[in-house]
Amino acid sequence: MQLKYKSYWRKSGLKGKWGNIFLERLSNYNPKNVLEIGVFCGVTAKNTCDFLYKSNGNNFSYTGIDLFGIDQKDKRDEIKPYVMIMVKKVILQK
Q1: How far apart are the first and last CA of the chain?
Q2: pLDDT in tens, 73-82
Q3: Up-side HSE of residue 63: CA atoms within 13 Å toward CB?
Q4: What confidence tens digit (pLDDT) does each residue in 13-44 have?
Q5: 3-class SS at 94?
Q6: Domain ranges (residues) in the chain
Q7: Residue-wise DSSP of 11-79
Q8: How far is CA 29 from the centre of its chain?
């Protein structure tokens, strides 16, 4: 399966060829369960879930963990936009 890594409008640690390499690796292993530690803005999460859905239909599990959550004391550097919360809920409902 050939997929192209999409950047969307948020920041991502994987860009261009590195995102495509990541998707190639996913394709080689074809997992049904993925754990991502350090979700940040959810760009890799969205790409991963798109891949898992295309290769497994609804028969997959994605878990994303990020240390910046509700209990964060200093919120100056991290803003949790409401739209990203809703996007993550939609991704996980697939």
Answers
A1: 19
A2: 555 555 555 5
A3: 3
A4: 677 788 888 899 999 999 999 998 888 778 88
A5: coil
A6: 17-93
A7: --S--THHHHHHHHHHHHH--SEEEEE--TTSHHHHHHHHHHHHHHTT--EEEEE-S-STT-S--SS--
A8: 17
